[in-house]
Design goal:
By secondary structure, the chain is of the alpha+beta class. A hairpin with a 3-residue loop joins strand 1 and strand 2.
């Protein structure tokens, strides 16, 4: 397991334990199971394994389960947030990432139980504590959704 406080710039992947150290999200709002192919805060791929056991499928939709588009956007944002927090981590403060905006969102195909969603994230630009990221959700090599996510990194007291 990688020590985030000392090796954040060399991070190449994040397990669920490392994601839980970086993000404040917990079940049922944690939308990523692991992150692979991390390049600092430049690019990463987050993984979400969609299962029928998820509580959202009790109402969305029982006869035809579809993973909601807003949760796909949330998975994109969480992937970007986790790599930024891990990259910027220091021992004297903790950061959280707040979503400021979602632009150019498009949903092309639905995802459902049994799908593995890959959240491909690429930094467009970052100035101080505000970053903008291009994101694509991909299932079996097909882009099912895309968006540009803008977020602000905020330090919170330890």
């Amino acid at each position: 397991m990688t020590d985030l406080s000392t090796a954040s710039k060399e991070l190449t992947a994040m397990s669920i334990a490392e994601i839980l150290k970086s993000l404040p999200h917990r079940y049922p709002m944690l939308m990523i199971d692991k992150i692979i192919e991390i390049d600092g805060d430049e690019t990463a791929i987050g993984i979400k394994n969609v299962t029928f056991n998820e509580p959202i499928f009790q109402g969305h939709f029982p006869e035809n389960p579809i993973f909601p588009g807003v949760l796909i956007i949330e998975g994109m944002a969480q992937t970007a947030g986790a790599i930024v927090i891990a990259h910027d981590s220091s021992g004297d403060r903790k950061n959280i990432v707040l979503m400021l905006g979602v632009d150019k969102a498009k949903f092309r195909k639905p995802a459902g139980p049994g799908d593995k969603i890959e959240f491909h994230i690429a930094k467009i630009q970052r100035r101080r504590n505000v970053g903008r990221y291009k994101a694509e959700a991909i299932v079996d090599g097909v882009v099912i959704a895309e968006a540009e996510i803008t977020a602000m990194i905020v330090g919170v007291p330890l």
